[in-house]
TrEMBL record, chains A, B:
Designated name of the protein: Sodium/hydrogen exchanger
Biased composition (Basic and acidic residues): 657-668
Source species: Dicentrarchus labrax (European seabass)
InterPro entries from the UniProt entry: Cation/H_exchanger_CPA1 (IPR018422), Cation/H_exchanger_TM (IPR006153), NaH_exchanger (IPR004709), NHE-6/7/9 (IPR002090)
Lineage: Eukaryota, Metazoa, Chordata, Craniata, Vertebrata
Record field: transmembrane: 12-32, 57-76, 88-105, 168-185, 197-219, 239-257, 310-332, 344-373, 394-415, 421-440, 461-480, 492-517
Length: 668, 668
């Protein structure tokens, strides 16, 4: 009875619920015990035990993989190896383990017979009852199974077990990565380049998707002509491939940018684009799936279906955006003095954003991204100093583990995934298509943007952005989500290869490329960018940005955080009572200090001081606190934050200079 | 096809994979889209969507529950309410939501028909194939289903969905709680009272288990006589109940002890006993399950089966203990300067202990407990300052969330669990039995222990221990794990009620009880216990403890950590080369400092300094560093740690005095 209850599980959870398999040491005891049971129960129980043991071993494999990755990363950081990023390393280890699992272990199947089958006239149902001599057993649908695979359903158990439910990536592993990305976007250069980033992310991803989709359709036609295509491959499939492969993920490049302190604007453009285009790609791909022309299974263009898809895209995106931003704003906590409660609350609110969006039919990942951005901008200022550290570190660890897990799983999947379809023409075509797609995204849009930008995106920056079009976790997660059809299986295999190639080759080539393109890297922290900062900001910040900044600084921040000027001084006089009711006492205090010691603004302003890390700039403080100058100073302070935070975020190390110092200390 | 792949999931994971249900805003769009699909696919897809949406809503319910709990706890802490602990609160909120789910929401079933069934002659298999006009679908066994429930398999979907797979508690929620408990055991009073704690935990739990088991067997016999028992209830079932209900969990009491700074010895006895008896109870219960007398289903005593069970107990326990301790010792990291890597590694190693134990047939929870204790003792000293904070905080948050989740789930389960069996006689009998069992545990063992102890366990301490026999997370997790039979269902219901009663009544009565029993509470941190500490330790520490301490201090610590004297000075001369190879350079450095500035020992010794928190005691430092005096000092420093850590651990707040100060500041 107990044994029967156990198999109620799937994927990772299966891999977790592994109680009492009584295996190695107690094998004898369990054998004795089993004798007394009926033979039927014995078989089921033994099967369950074996399966549980294997689940534990499999999950343990992943954990040891991660452990190995961490140890090697540490060695690399210690020896300042830069050509291979931790994600690239995780993939290599994954590949190795995949090879061992595939070729090194004999088939461990405990019985190779075909499972019993029964027939029904109706279509598949989610719940099926099995009547065994009066007793009823409940069965859950697992999925359709290929007729040629029927005989080895129980075979290759190891390889099957090591395969996770694809939704795990979306619901467990991507959210912390995306949230952390959003949470790290609170940066000076990001807001300054917001317009360009949004253009690249939305227009650029759409261009890339359609260019790749159309090129791939050509490749598919070619394959049909030369007889390489054995099953259906529609135009919408090609577009879907275009959407999933348009999600860039330049973690490797950004890590090196951080370490070398490459140009802040370029960093913001790349990071911002990669974060936002993940959101665009995920919504785009589901819109394409929703594109269903009236005559089923035709690949002709249908205008109404197209507009329906566009509607779905706009609906899902704006819904997710609003939901994320709203939750981000709502979670302004006042639980000072209880950092544990604050951290827990912060974590729960981020997660509930994800679930709320999913429950409402939006995309949780997108909502979580905008929730992260909003929380970094508003909620972060309300947290106590202790909690800001805690939340940052909590999400850092989660992000680190999730990212490396996905990349090592990718390595593993190349050998353990059962339905790979390697098609040389498709793969070569895809490689060419993604480069053309990236070029059609970057160069024309940069040209257009440069018409409007005062501070132009230079040619070498454009080449670097072109080069940094790596593919990563999001493309993989979207590709593995549905591998039911021939087309999707071919896409999955190709995506995997593209991720490998771009992460290893382009990731490894970042440092040479930076010097080849003569992109300035300031070795010290607060030198170049800060000195130029003052003049740059005035030149570039567009009127739209200024408008938003003023609104944010004068109204939103005072309402939502304890920082900023009190509303009583920014709102018109007739709003007095409302203003004083919405302003927190702390804001008054901050404002008093702001008036009294203007030059010490950044030091007294409670919620800004701690952001500096170890570097404080009081030199900037000039008299006269107009909104514009406050903007300059605040942005400068964020510049500092970018550098100190960024390093920790991506390297998990103390800042550069500290590391230098330590290397010279006798201990190492 | 896509929709068919989705239902491959279970329990919590099911509750997570909830992509794209296109519900509220896009309801219209999804309706339009669905039109084009075949009717069959439509039904399945709609079903899947509906189910996914509901999963999200359900998980969201739990998260909002936790959020509400956190906000109320904050309010309570702010107003210094002590009669209700956060876990008690979580249960109340859970109860309320349970009532709403049960009675407030109409049956949301989308189709109430009985699922199709098919017949097989063979016994239930784990995998079943369904042949629908040539297409094959794979089904997984979910469990046996009662024949009376066949018709509402799909009914009461909400209540079914809100029910987690019981293994979730064991594999996801208990490990962080237990690990955190083990990790917090690094305390002076714990090691001083180790013998007593082990006696209470092993002998006491066994006594309690057998007393309760036998009393309950009497109750069951009585129920048979008065005709209240409608199904089978064996003697082994009674013993099993005795085992699961013997796991005490006085979180509420300990939290109040911490806040009031009650006697350190009493705290250590209670905390140590509760942590260890969880491990004993879990292994004891599985040994009882393994007790299968030769004639199946008889409840007569069988000596060989009994000794087999004892063998299982000893095997599992010692195996888990050794595995946990070994992994704890192995994870001594040297990744200084990279706190993120260190924290991630620490986390992964703790988890891999759990999985390794499970894979080898031991009990993961027990292994994790001893891993935590070992890591706190050795690995903790090797971590960098930043990492110690991070790991502590990480596990603190995980423990906090897991604990409150379990307690709020308990509240929920009272109304949402479908198979409750409320039997007044059994419940009243159980209440009486647990008190008698507790009394037979505490009083005779205290009497025996007092024969050997120099520092006696006084009468009022014994009464307090008797009073603090609360039941909590472990008893619940063990009870919910198997609710397949009539007996187990009745046990589960009774356990739930016992947990509610003890947490609310005894938890709430702790403060009055403390004053009624005249148990001294020192309001200030470092006064009483520290002053007495010096004299006490010498009196009480048994020769066994001293022997162990010397061995640990002279050999284990130098090998496994950077602290302690170098091996070269503790090992005999002929072991010189081995000693110098095993000693880390840092240990030499520490030792130099130790010799040079002996009175500053605690300040210079790198890995001890940061443990103090904000309180440093240099006053104790006397000249002459014999092993005994070092012991005194080290234990004293742990005393400090106990007080500062304990408060944070259980309240997540800054220490008492700080809180006092803040309350008087104008900000609040």
């Amino acid at each position: 009875m107990d044994a029967l209850r156990r198999p109620k599980r799937s994927a990772v959870f299966a891999a977790l619920d592994t109680m009492l398999p009584v295996w190695i040491l107690l094998n004898a005891v369990s054998g004795l015990k089993a004798e007394d049971d009926g033979m039927e129960e014995l078989a089921t129980e033994k099967e369950a035990e074996e399966s549980h043991r294997q689940d534990s071993v499999n999950l343990l494999t992943f954990i040891l993989l991660l452990t190995l990755t961490i140890l090697t990363i540490w060695l690399f950081k210690h020896r300042r190896v830069r050509f291979l990023h931790e994600t690239g390393l995780a993939m290599i280890y994954g590949l190795l383990v995949g090879v061992i699992l595939r070729y090194g272990i004999p088939a461990t199947s405990y019985h190779n017979k075909t499972p019993p089958s029964c027939s029904l006239k109706e279509g598949p149902v989610s719940t099926l009852l099995l009547n065994v001599s009066g007793k009823f057993f409940e069965y859950t649908l697992k999925g359709e199974i290929n007729s040629r695979e029927i005989h080895n359903v129980e075979q290759n158990d190891m390889l099957r077990k090591v395969t996770f439910d694809p939704e795990v990536f979306f619901n467990i592993l991507l959210p912390p990565i995306i949230f952390h990305a959003g949470y790290s976007l609170k940066k000076r250069h990001f807001f300054r380049n917001l317009g360009s980033i949004i253009t690249y992310a939305f227009l650029g991803t759409a261009i890339s998707c359609f260019v790749i989709g159309n090129l791939m359709y050509g490749v598919v036609k070619l394959m049909q002509v030369v007889g390489q295509l054995t099953d259906k491959f529609y135009y919408t499939d090609c577009l879907f491939f275009g959407a999933i492969i348009s999600a860039t993920d330049p973690v490797t490049v950004l890590a090196i940018f951080n370490e070398l302190h490459a140009d802040g604007d370029l960093y913001a453009l790349l990071f911002g684009e990669s974060v936002m285009n993940d959101a665009v790609a995920i919504v785009l791909s589901s819109s394409i799936v929703a594109y269903q022309p009236s005559g089923a299974n035709t690949h002709m263009f249908d205008a109404s279906a197209f507009f329906k898809s566009v509607g779905v895209f706009l609906g899902i995106f704006s819904g997710s955006f609003l939901m994320g931003a709203a939750t981000g704003v709502v979670t302004f906590t006042k639980l000072h003095c209880f950092p544990l409660l604050e951290t827990a609350l912060f974590f729960l609110m981020s997660w509930s954003t994800f679930l709320l969006a999913e429950a409402c039919g939006f995309t949780g990942v997108v909502a979580v991204l905008f929730c992260g951005i909003t929380q970094a901008h508003y909620t972060y200022n309300n947290l106590s100093e202790e909690s800001t550290k805690r939340t940052k570190q909590l999400f850092e660890v989660l992000h680190f583990l999730a990212e490396n897990f996905i990349f090592s799983y990718m390595g593993l999947a190349l050998f353990t995934f059962q339905n790979h379809i390697f098609s040389p023409i498709f793969i070569i075509g895809a490689f060419i298509a993604i480069f053309i797609g990236r070029a059609f995204n970057i160069y024309p849009l940069s040209f257009l943007l440069n018409l409007g930008r005062r501070h132009k995106i230079k040619g070498n920056f454009q080449h670097m952005m072109m080069f940094a079009g790596l593919r990563g976790a999001m493309a993989f997660a979207l590709a593995i989500r549905d591998t039911a059809t021939y087309a999707r299986q071919m896409m999955f295999t190709t995506t995997l290869l593209i991720v490998f190639f771009t992460v290893w080759v382009f990731g490894g080539g970042t440092t040479p490329m930076l010097s080849w393109l003569h992109i300035r890297c300031c070795r010290r922290k607060s030198d170049g960018p800060q000195a130029e900062g003052q003049s740059k900001t005035k030149q570039e910040s567009a009127w739209l940005f200024r408008l938003w900044y003023t609104f944010d600084h004068n109204y939103l921040k005072p309402i939502l955080t304890h920082s900023g000027p009190p509303l009583t001084s920014t709102l018109p006089a007739y709003c007095g009572p409302l203003a004083s009711c919405l302003t927190s006492p702390q804001a008054y205090e901050n404002h008093e200090q702001l008036r009294d010691h203007d030059s010490d603004l950044l030091h007294n302003d409670g919620d800004l001081t701690f952001m500096f890390g170890d570097t404080a700039i009081t030199a900037n403080g000039a008299s006269g606190s107009t909104s514009e100058e406050a903007l300059e100073r605040e942005l400068d302070s964020r510049e500092q934050e970018l550098l100190s935070r960024g390093t920790r975020g991506f390297f998990g190390s103390t800042p550069h200079l500290d590391a230098d110092l330590r290397q010279h200390s006798p201990k190492h």
